Amino acid sequence: MKKHKRKIYLVVVLLLVIIGGIIGVKNYLFPYYKIESRTKQLKKFRTIDGEKAIGWIKVQGTDIDFPIVYYYDSDVSDATNELGWSFSNKKTLQKKTTIFSHNILNVSSNPLIRDKNHKRFEQLLSFIYTDFVKENKYIQYTVGKKDYLYKIYGVSFQKGKKLNYKNPNLSNKKMKEYIKYTKKNSYFDFNVDVDENDKLITLVTCTRFFGNTTDYSFVVDARLVRDKEIVKNYKVTEKKNYDKIKKIMEGEKDEA
């Protein structure tokens, strides 16, 4: 009887090892997000003024796939430029990277997920939809001749200038404050651990989701994929504060 139980135990262990191996090989060969290098595009790009880009952004599930310039080098209000900008001119990976781009066409309380006329950060508003967020969780940023990958951990509207998210060199204390604030205000709970030792990226654009007020920005936060971390799908759930967003999309006016 004992021998029979031992055989069953060994068979179960063997099956678990085999299944784990298959999953590991699958994740290695077919990662949830596969980097498409933009180093060549970054090297070749020049603005209409002849300026070089400092980086290149690519967001999963969207057509956001364009260069990033230093704010003071180019006229970022020129609608013929399909690009984003940073207030930092560093061409190396920063502790806190913040990228801005315009949202000119997708400003209603029922944002479109994709439209051929969206040229900048209009499609960033796709991340207000739960189903979209569950399927798209990674941001690719190319800088310093290398492609980096980030895991999204927060989606929120930020009002005014409560936090200095532009600063690329936040202290550990300020990083903790920013992470705590963005996770608390995110409309989704992402199964992603993040701390002050991680490198972060923040994507910011304007919105009219709450009407004609210009007080709000739409913000997507992510942290750098860590060494040896598997690029995989992870759980996302709606938080209680998302109820307000759903009501606005259903036609209720915001009373805040």
Give structural attributes:
single chain; 256 residues; alpha+beta; 8-stranded mixed β-sheet; two-stranded antiparallel ribbon; 5 helices
Sketch the major β-sheet. 8 strands, mixed
End-to-end separation in angstroms reads 69 Å
Strand fraction equals 15-25%
Any low-confidence stretches, pLDDT <50, length ≥5? none
Strand tally: 10
Helical coverage, percent range? 10-25%
Name the helix and strand elements from N-terminus to C-terminus, one letter apiece: HHEEEEHEEHEEEEH
Q: Figure out the total of helices.
A: 5
Query: Which strand order does the major sheet show?
Result: 3-2-1-5-6-9-8-4
Question: Radius of gyration, rounded?
Answer: 21 Å
Q: Could you say which overall geometry the principal axes of the C-alpha atoms support?
A: globular
**Mean pLDDT over the full residue set:** 86
Structural class: alpha+beta
Describe the structure.
This protein has 256 residues and is α+β, with helices and mostly antiparallel strands. The longest helix has 28 residues, at 2-29. The chain has an 8-stranded mixed beta sheet with strand order 3-2-1-5-6-9-8-4. A two-stranded antiparallel ribbon has the order 7-10. It has helices at residues 2-29, 39-44, 130-135, 172-185, 242-249, and strands at residues 55-59, 65-70, 84-86, 96-100, 138-143, 146-159, 188-190, 200-206, 216-224, 236-238. The radius of gyration is 21 Å and the shape is globular. The protein is built from 5 helices and 10 strands; from the N terminus they run ααββββαββαββββα. The model has no long low-confidence stretch (mean pLDDT 86).
